[in-house]
Structure formats: structure tokens, C-alpha cells
Amino acid sequence: MKELSSIAAAIQPSATLAVNTLFKQMKADGLDVVGFGAGEPDFSTPSNISEAGVRAIEEGKTRYTPSAGIIPLRKAIAARLKADCGVQYDHTQIVVASGAKHGIYITLCALCNPGDEVILPGPYWVSYCEMIRMAGAVPVIVTAGEAQHFKITPEQLEAAVTEKTKLVIINNPSNPTGMLYSEDELRALADVCVRHDLYILADEIYYKLVYDDNRFVSVASLSEEIKERTILVNGVSKTYAMTGWRIGFTASNPEIARVMSNYLSHSTGAPSTISQWAALEAVNGPQESVEQMRRVFEQRRTYLVEHMNQIDGVSCLMPQGAFYVMMNIDRLIGRTLGGRVIHNADDFAMAFLETSLVAVVSCTSFGLPNFVRWTYASSMETIQEGLRRLEAFLSE
Ligand code: PMP
Ligand code: GLU
Question: How far is it, in rounded angstroms, from Cα 334 to Cα 262?
């Protein structure tokens, strides 16, 4: 038989989803495993939102919708972006996709020609890299280590720009680092993009999960000039605990929105109708649950970070947003743990899972091989148990 597409054959499976699948399988096999793998809120979808989904089914809202989504939802998203981010979009500039992940993918497809370069700050969420390749483009990684709080500088960005650069991805707050760019830092990065005529894919899916007195600023709110070249990506998965409903969206200039809508009309057709009606209630309805969940995440973050830093051999920074912690394992390299010599985070994650039955994500596939990502989108009891097992594992 003839060979498969060389682009498709080179794509690696998602490391975060792989950990999640393994965790669920081990649990189903009756093992006492605790999970800090895939980042998804452990809360149930608020009942007013689920009820809106049920109502949609009962009212027969079960047919195809326009490819970019139902108009009431697109209008509600535009109103929410205005209220929360201070950015004005017409509903025709909003495109609803089957998850923010899909919104990112169609953005890349809409913008990139084969061989175009996409600048990706590292450490990065694993799916960006593969989606860039899936769109036929080339990821150019710019790495920011722990010493610079995992945030790239405008000088680093400038140095990575070539004639082939089409866009830059800015994920703020960041998965996997939990770091937040300040308004000044964002402006300095955006200025480089304006100067070199680059698009900005601004993934702001964690915008509601910001802690202490830190303040989130949307890239698109910085100036009209910046907004014109920015494709905002957001969604309901993290803000409203709706990961399984698969609704995300983009906001962009009308031309990009039109191209993405055409793309959708031939790929998914449209996002799930039932989920769109539920998402309308999420975006339009009472917002109290968002703040309640944020507060719980904040408490867990503080607990996890403070206790992790008391354990000998590992350390982590205090993140300002999202629900992830990057654990530094530099001091464990070369040690033998659980019968395995630890050369990198892959070895650590495997040994920790096999020996202590704790699932964490190695940051090798995020571009930083000496870090392990924990999510605190898990209960306080789970966090306490995970830390107890970490301490026991390291003192063996
Ligand atoms: N962007 C980032 C940074 C994420 O962490 C996630 C979560 N998987 C997504 C996008 C995609 O979210 P979803 O497809 O569930 O809307
Ligand atoms: N964003 C989450 C994570 O990074 C969900 C899994 C995924 O889609 O990658 O763990």
C-alpha cells in the first residue's frame, strides 16, 4: 500500500491526554493511583448550564447550526469579551469551534502557508507544536527558563523573527508554567509583532484563573493596531468546568473570521448544537460559580507550592494563574529512584507512577526536560496524598 501522509505520520500523540488515559486505565484496574495529569477542572459543570443543555435537547434544538455558531452565542461571547477584556467585537468576528484546541488549529490553518514559521515560546503546551506541524508550518521555539520566570523577552522574540515568520503564539496565563505576563511585558512583545507585521495568536483560555493581586490584560485590548493582528482564542472548558462539552471560540478581524468559518463549514460543519446552547447559558448566565472555583484553585495552589518547596530535592515557583505548577527536578538528575536512574523528567514521571502510583506530566514534551508538571485541578485530599507520596518516594 502507498505510504500515509508524511505530515500526519510524523504527529506524536498528546502527552497530556496519554497520561490521562493511563491514569484512568490504572484506576479502572483497581490501583490506588492519584492523578495530577491532564488539566481539567475537577468540578461538575454548574447545574444551570447543564440544564440549558438538557432543555436544548427537549426543545428539539438538535439540528445543524451555521458553521461559525448560533448568532445568540456569538453575540453573548462578544458581550462577555467586552465586559471582561475591554475589547469590542461584532458577533460576525466571533467563530465558535469544537473546543479552543480546534479554534487554535483552524487559526493556524487560516494563517499559514507550507513552510511558514510560527514562534512558540517554551515551555509550551504540547498541542501547539503538533498543530503547527499539522497546518504545514514550522515551529520555532524560543525558550524561557525558570530564571526568567518562564517568560520570553522582546529581545528573544526579535532574534527569532525571520522573513518566514507568520505569527507568534502567546498563551497567557500559561499552560504549563502558570506564569502571567504583565501589561508592560505584553506590550513589549506585541510591539515586536507590529514592527515585523506578525499575527498574534493569543490563547487566553485561563484568563479567569488569576491569583493574588495579579491582573489579567488581554493582548487585544492594548491598541487597535494590535487588536487588528490578534486572533483571540478562548473557550468555556476551564472557566465554566465544561471540558467535555467541546466549545471554544476565536475573535479576530472579519477577514480571518470569514476564512475560518469557511474552513469549518467543510470540516466539522459546526460545533455541537446542544453544547452551543449550554455555552450560551455559561457566557450569559450567573457568573458566581466562576469566582467560587477560582478561589478554590487559589487555595490549592498556595498549599501545593508551599508544601512542595519544603520537600528536599525539588522546588517550584509560585504561579500567578491557570492551574499548573512546574516542579524543578534538577537536583534529582543522576539519582536512582524506584529502581530507575533519573536522566530526565520522563524517567522521573515513569518511576513515580510505577513506584508511588502518582500520575504527573513530564515536561519533556513541553520543551523543558528537567521539569514535571502537576495540576491542582484536583481535590485538596488528592494534593495532600500526592505530596505525602512524593516525600516518601524521594526519601527512599
Ligand atoms: N489552550 C490551552 C493552553 C489549554 O491548556 C487547553 C486545554 N487543553 C486548550 C487550549 C484547549 O481547551 P479546549 O479544547 O478544551 O477548549
Ligand atoms: N489542557 C489540558 C492539559 O494540558 C487538557 C489536556 C489537553 O488537551 O492537552 O493537560
Answer: 53
